[in-house]
Automatic annotation (TrEMBL):
Provenance organism: Nosocomiicoccus ampullae
Official protein name in the record: Probable tRNA sulfurtransferase
GO term, biological process aspect, one: thiamine diphosphate biosynthetic process
Pfam families reported in the protein's UniProt record: ThiI, ThiI_fer, THUMP
Principal localisation: cytoplasm
Length: 398
């Protein structure tokens, strides 16, 4: 079928009275970015948005907008003249896409009150016609399909399909955070979840060459690219050289506590970066009880280094739910590539599940972390999503 438009229904932003204009503006720019290169025109008004399709495939466009935050649902629309015959013709066309014994009904929205037929008359006319022509059963209460007819000033819009959007709020309407991004399954999902609330992220990745390879870094860059592409924004990643810190921890901190200290230093660095870029919280993929560093005691001991908010969108999810989401967002296949991340290499044999704060502080007093932290922050490399620049200076170190 040849569709002329896509109707985009807004999500929760309809609740935000005062900021509505700004919300809609952000949504338009993300949609335009996600549809770059496509021959479309985006027309937004207060209550809904239309995307004019210049011979583009409606389903391809809908697929590209599936992960844009702030979209409640989308429908591909056929636009026709305000004529009874045209409505009948299109109704049969839509009907022909339904499965054999499925039920249907006709629903009418009459915005143009000057149209010569009333809502009920249109329903009767078109519904009756489809039944006569096709024998399709009607079900008013719970139809399998609804043929929607909207009589508007500029013409009649007809459709029968509604595709769910990602919901949430448009990105960039809720401030900024630093996302701790490893190459695993969890942290990209945490990123998507936080972005769903309209919050922008800049990623931070701790990189320990040569213990972690260029390929593992490429994998994290790929995750950033996927997140950016799906959500229709550009994402920056700060790559922190972490080798010296990891080596110092490995040498000086007892095995059982090294993970705790590593996490603590990561948090200190994330907080400093956050403050320098105007981010108001840190986000990570922690999940309560998943591993030794994510018991309540561990989280408490780790968190003592900061009073900056640390948001954990996956805190209570089942691993299975996280995997499902990762598949939905499209990061799963990349996340499960086998390249090691920095913590796998330095993984302690028996990490403490109940690390005691006093002990941690005592061990850490053997290392002066401050110069290491300053150096790491100074040597941060930036990666921009979907940029060609894949040869950072790290490749020279390998
Ligand atoms: P994932 O690796 O997908 O995040 P995980 O269960 O392997 O999940 P951990 O390795 O225990 O998680 O790490 C917990 C969190 O710490 C991660 O979700 C991530 O936010 C952060 N993190 C771990 N390693 C790094 C890293 N090298 N760079 C940035 N953040 C990291
Ligand atoms: Mg991990």
């Amino acid at each position: 079928m040849n569709y002329d438009l896509i109707l985009v229904r807004y999500g929760e932003l309809t609740l935000k009275k005062k900021n509505r204009k700004m919300f809609i503006g952000k949504l338009v720019s993300q949609i335009e970015q996600a549809l770059e290169g496509k021959s479309v025109v985006v027309r937004a008004n207060r209550d809904r948005m239309y995307i004019e399709l210049d011979n583009e495939d409606a389903y391809d466009i809908i697929d590209r907008l599936k992960h844009i935050n702030g979209i409640l649902s989308m429908s591909p629309i056929i636009r026709l003249r305000k004529s009874e015959d045209e409505m009948k013709r299109v109704a049969l066309e839509l009907e022909s896409t339904f499965n054999k014994d499925d039920t249907f009904k006709v629903e009418v929205k009459r915005v143009d009150k000057s149209f010569h037929l009333k809502t009920h008359d249109i329903q009767q006319l078109i519904g009756g016609y489809v039944v006569r022509e096709t024998n399709r059963p009607v079900n008013i209460k719970q139809p399998d399909h609804t043929i929607m007819i909207e009589v508007r000033f500029e013409g009649v819009y007809m459709y029968s399909e509604v595709f769910e959007g990602n919901g949430g709020l448009p990105l960039g309407t809720g401030g900024k955070t630093v996302l701790m991004l490893s190459g695993g399954i969890d942290s990209p999902v945490a990123g998507f979840e936080i972005m769903k609330r309209g919050i922008e992220v800049e990623a931070i990745h701790y990189f320990s060459p040569p213990y972690t390879s260029e390929r593992s870094l490429e994998k994290v860059k790929k995750l950033v690219d996927i997140m950016a592409e799906k959500t229709g924004v550009s994402i920056k990643m700060h790559i922190v050289p972490f080798t010296k810190i990891q080596t110092a921890i490995y040498d000086k901190i007892p095995d059982g506590y090294s993970m705790t200290t590593t996490r603590r230093v990561m948090l200190i660095i994330a907080e400093r970066l956050a403050k320098s870029i105007g981010a108001e919280a840190i986000v990570n993929g922690e999940n309560i009880g998943q591993v030794a560093s994510q018991t309540l005691t561990s989280m408490n001991t780790i968190n003592q280094v900061t009073n900056f908010p640390v948001l954990r969108p996956l805190l209570t999810y089942e691993k299975n739910e996280i995997i499902q989401k990762s598949m939905y967002y499209g990061t799963y296949e990349t996340s499960i590539l086998p390249y090691e991340d920095c913590c796998t290499i330095f993984k302690p044999k028996k990490p403490k599940t109940q690390p005691n704060l006093e002990n941690v502080e005592k061990y850490e007093s053997n290392i002066d972390f401050e110069p290491f932290i300053e150096e790491a922050l100074k040597d941060i490399e930036i990666y921009h999503s979907n940029s060609e620049e894949k040869n950072s200076k790290f490749s020279d170190l390998l």
